[in-house]
Specification:
two-stranded antiparallel ribbon; globular; mainly beta; 3 helices; 7% helix; 6-stranded mixed barrel
Amino acid sequence: MQFIFLASGAFLALVGTISAERLGSAVTVPLSRRMLTEETSGTASERRPKMAYYGEVTLGTPPQRFVVVYDTGSGNLIVPGSECYSHACQMHKRFRADLSNTSRPSVCGMYTGRPSNRLMIHFGTGHVRGKCIEDEICIGGLCTAAHFIEATEESNKPFSSFRFDGVLGLSLSTLSRSNDFSIMHQLSSRHSFKQRIFSVFLSS
């Protein structure tokens, strides 16, 4: 199977196979394109444009739809949660774990020698606090159980300026919390993919 993300000028494709009938077929996901402004040092004179591509992903059972940026530089899925009351979270759709029949808490990692389901992630211009969840994640009709981060706090900068709800990391699992958090690893380990490969098609 080939998985293609298409973006107002772009498509992303993942290569794999689910069954003999679907061998060589393609799953396409439409993406939208938006120019963002990235601050390099917090001053207006040092802002630079940055292109972002975003599309839909569904979480939980029944599915809850989110718009996420498809990020090749990170490995985790992060979406706002229902317990997040930050201004940035309230501007976007929030995940309701209580409305999903398949949602359950998961461990983010070890903290002072003990398992913890909470974490904090720092970005270049902001941060996210959250808890870890395991649930059904679907992209373009391909679904797998995987772990993700449900934000309980998001800094106003840069998240309040985003048109999308969250971030879907597509990089290697070395940039995710663990293999359980890597959507690419989970899809391939459950034989949805022959290889952990996706492609991007850009057009005018």
